[in-house]
Amino acid sequence: MPVGTLATVKGILPQQLKDVGVQQVLANTYHLALRPGADIVEEMGGLHQFMNWDGPILTDSGGFQVFSLAKMRKLDEKQVVFRSHIDGSVFELSPEKAVRIQEQLGADCIMCLDECPPHDVSPDEMQRAVDLTTRWATRCRDAQQRSDQALFGIVQGGTHQKMRERSAEGLVPLDLPGYAVGGLSVGEDPADMYTTLDFTTPLLPADRPRYLMGVGRPQDLLESVVRGIDLFDCVMPTRNGRNAQAFTSAGPVRLRNQKHQRDPGPLDPECGCLTCTSYSRAYLRHLFIAGEMLGPILLSLHNIAFYQQLLRNLREAIQLNKAAEFKAVQLARWGISN
User: Fold this and answer.
1) Domain count, the chain
2) Catalytic pick from 39, 87, 124, 233?
3) Which of 54, 60, 189, 230 is catalytic?
4) Are residues 243 and 230 in the same domain?
5) Is residue 1 in some structural domain?
6) 338 part of a folded domain
7) Which domain, by its residues, includes 132?
8) Are residues 39 and 134 in the same domain?
9) What is the mean pLDDT of residues 254-283?
10) Taking every annotated instance into account, which residue ranges of this chain make up the domain tRNA-guanine(15) transglycosylase-like (predicted)?
11) CA-closest candidate to residue 64, choices 17, 13, 114, 3
12) pLDDT score at 67
């Protein structure tokens, strides 16, 4: 799911997302509640109409901001209180309010409010966050009024197996439509993330979507899918694209490098997106060197297309019972040891 925090995937039109195979996008409860406000989005017909996207939308609850804006918030049993990063005003977010805002936004998949602790907190702090997340999930479920939105619970616990088990034991009995694995890709080693998924995904219902939040690199997607993950979101395709890095079938390409200055070839000869079929590496590099806004747009579009094609190919490999082989071949092409 490309990240459209403020009801837009930066620089990309909704039709362009569809053209490269995007099925679902992500928006953010905290940010949209601050600007333009949930009431305004609701008045404009909900997120689908507001942003002209008729496909599925998932909204994060604001739980990640509990982690990312830790210096600007206070948290207790009742709620989390933020100091707005925009104007310093106070913004209170309880589990009930998080659900209400997401119902106003009108997303198809909505997330329980949770506490995402740093991966290196003490065992006592980790357990406190896990138990609070479970209690908040119960409150979110009880507060939900719309029946047309799928509420996902979020399993926390860092890289600790016992904590992940404790979190799943609290959340699975709530019988939610989907479950997410949160609290990864927040500073731990990738190998620790994979190990955590090895013991976490089997704890979650196999007949419900399993969503790994905030991940990640192309190799992370491959490693996670073979461990049972179904859904992903990450800013990396667009953020890296805006900073002149492309993901390609042969590995990452940095367009600012001088070696591309006279390269007439496509960015990725195996990609059929608009960027790769219409523009040379030399032109793309020129756009970034000249500070032209078309460069970030074209690279963002390509990176999204690359991620979508990678997962389409992986789905086909799964159907042929060749997922492990597909992963090994891809990692070898990127020069990554399996």
Assistant:
1) 2
2) 233
3) 60
4) no
5) no
6) no
7) 14-234
8) yes
9) 98
10) 1-330
11) 114
12) 62
Residue 300 counted as an annotated binding residue: no
Q: Is residue 290 part of a domain?
A: yes
Structure tokens at 54: 């008729």
Q: In the annotation, is 175 catalytic?
A: no
pTM of the model: 0.95
Closest CA to 182 of 272, 78, 270, 61: 61
d(CA 28, CA 35): 11
Question: Please, are residues 333 and 250 in contact by the beta-carbon 8 Å criterion?
Answer: yes
Say whether 233 is catalytic: yes
One domain, residues 229 and 247? no
Residues 202 and 85 in one domain: yes
- Quick one: what percent of the chain has pLDDT higher than 70? 99
* 112 labelled binding-site residue: no
* pLDDT score recorded for residue 71: 74
Mean pLDDT of 48-56: 98
Quick one: pLDDT at residue 52?
98
Distance of alpha carbon 326 from alpha carbon 320, whole angstroms: 10
227 with 287, same domain: the answer is no
CA 112-198-134 angle, to 5 degrees, is 25
Q: What is the pLDDT of residues 289-317, one digit of tens each?
A: 999 999 999 999 999 999 999 999 999 99
